[in-house]
Design goal:
This protein has 450 residues and is an alpha/beta fold. It has helices spanning 72-78, 98-109, 124-134, 148-158, 183-200, 221-225, 272-278, 323-336, 362-374, 400-409, 435-442; strands at residues 8-12, 18-19, 35-39, 87-92, 115-119, 141-144, 162-166, 203-209, 228-237, 240-248, 256-262, 265-268, 286-293, 296-308, 316-319, 344-350, 382-384, 387-388, 394-395, 414-418, 429-432. Bound molecules: adenosine-5'-triphosphate (ATP) and magnesium ion (MG).
């Protein structure tokens, strides 16, 4: 492989792996058919001379105040507003509401500062329609342009305080041979905009599409390049959307913004605990799981129905849970926890159509079934996570700290966990060694039907 710089480079659109030849399967991330051709980087030309260096004490901080976006939940996730001259990447699945969210923010910003929307995906008229629905966006300036050079030149002339690029994948630089949305184009666009943002002090927000597995599409380099990466997720809790920071150079990544999609745009939900707690309060057969999606903890309501059956082989039907895992949990409940299910059909559903594939959700599934079987609700605002073993013993789930943090963040009142789970301090935990104990601890002793 000791070859001079190849004239043609191939790069993976998922992970950014680059190679001198094409592979059907990316050696970097094992994805199929993701390698695309990109123009080789031109040899760096001019020799640079030395530059003066500074001691930090001599650095003058003309640190301007943060720019409030007018959307309280967005401000919170950003760490208290937009930092001038920063570059923010907002990722999310199609239709989740990225354009809506950012147009509302621009509308509020435009009352005090110049706010520019560069739209490459929608026509000016389409944006106007949305603006009329949201209201208050009269002063937002708009540019329908996909040519990178033209966008940068316009930014240099107009110098808005805040600029939104919707989306970075539509930007196109004629200098590069590859198609819009390719790795090279996206990387070039982000790099160029980064320079413009830093030089001119424009807070720039890039909208980026996400791939099937939820990461921001295009090379991971984009995530390294920008100051802040926000993920906008949704459609899981009906009309609700969750915004979280994956990376933030100017604030914590533990903040969470919850929105509700309405006809007049996205409304912040300042108290998500109410939203997540409400579904389970006093309801028989519902439990809240704290599952990990990749590295991301997520609270999910799990519902169960236990109905008497005449079938020789009672049914165990799970939507969103692995059927083998469900059969195992039902067997352990019968054998070790005193929940007789031999003559009953068991149905389990994960609310919002989410799939859970990890054992950490076992305990909540078991609690939901036990609650349904006994007609006793799970304790109010209580989540559960942990792995159920075949012996009826519970095993701590991975990354307990993150899960407990998520439960605390969403304002739950307690968590039932296996013995040996590291305590967190911010939320009361009830430890249980066995599934039987966990059920006793998790079910509401006062709210039963007998
Ligand atoms: N009149 C309306 N009433 C209620 N909700 C609406 C209305 N119009 C649009 N929506 C919501 O807005 C969502 C689309 O929002 P938006 O265009 O901001 O998404 P996006 O993330 O920018 O999508 P894309 O990736 O396609 O650009 C729709 O999925 C829908 O839920
Ligand atoms: Mg959009």
């Amino acid at each position: 492989m000791a070859k001079a710089k190849a004239a043609v480079q191939f790069a993976c659109t998922e992970c950014g792996y680059s190679a001198g030849r094409w592979f059907g399967k990316c050696p970097g991330c094992d994805a199929f058919g993701t390698l695309v051709e990109e123009a080789a980087p031109s040899a760096s030309g001019t020799a640079a001379g030395p530059r003066p260096v500074l001691r930090l004490v001599d650095v003058e901080t003309a640190e301007a105040a943060r720019i409030p976006t007018g959307v309280a939940e967005l401000d919170r996730v950003l760490g208290g507003g937009l930092v001038p001259a920063s570059l923010v990447l907002v990722g999310g699945e199609p239709g989740v509401g990225k354009s809506t969210l950012l147009l509302s923010a621009l509308a509020a910003i435009s009352r005090e500062r110049r706010a520019l929307l560069v739209t490459g995906e929608e026509s000016v008229a389409q944006v106007k329609l949305r603006a009329e629905r949201l209201g208050g966006a009269e002063a937002v300036e708009i540019l329908a342009e996909t040519e990178l050079e033209a966008v940068c030149a316009t930014l240099e002339r107009e110098r808005p305080a805040v600029c939104v690029i919707d989306s970075v994948q539509t930007l196109y630089s004629a200098g590069l041979g590859s198609a819009p949305g390719s790795v090279a184009q996206v990387r070039e666009a982000a790099g160029r905009l980064l320079r413009v943002a830093k030089e001119l002090g424009i807070a720039t927000i890039l909208v980026g599409h996400v791939t099937k597995d939820g990461s921001v599409a295009g090379p991971r380099v984009l995530e390294h390049l920008v100051d802040t990466v926000l993920q906008f997720e949704g459609d899981r809790y009906r009309e609700h959307r969750v915004l979280r920071a994956v990376k933030n150079r100017f604030g914590s990544t533990n903040e969470l913004g919850v929105f509700e999609m309405t006809g007049t745009g996205l409304t912040g939900v300042p108290d998500p605990s109410e939203l997540f707690g409400r579904s389970a309060e006093g309801e028989v057969g519902a439990a809240v799981a704290c599952a990990l999606e990749g590295t991301r903890p997520l609270l999910l309501e799990i519902q169960a129905l236990v109905a008497p059956s005449d079938l020789a082989m009672p049914r165990r039907v799970g939507t969103g849970v692995d059927p083998r895992r469900l059969a195992m949990i039902v067997a352990v409940l019968s054998r070790h926890a005193g929940v007789a299910l031999g003559q009953a059909d068991v149905f389990v559903n994960v609310a919002g159509g989410v799939r859970i594939d990890e054992p950490g959700a076992d305990l909540a599934v078991a609690l939901a079934i036990a609650s349904a079987a006994r007609g006793v609700p799970v304790r109010a605002a209580t989540a559960a996570f942990g792995e159920v073993g075949l012996t009826g013993r519970l095993r701590p789930a991975t990354q307990a700290e993150r899960r407990l943090g998520e439960c605390a963040k969403l304002g739950l009142r307690g968590v039932v966990v296996p013995e040996g789970t590291a305590a967190h301090g911010r939320i009361p935990v009830t430890e249980a060694a066995s599934l039987r104990r966990a059920i006793t601890a998790g079910l509401d002793a006062s709210g039963g039907q007998g």
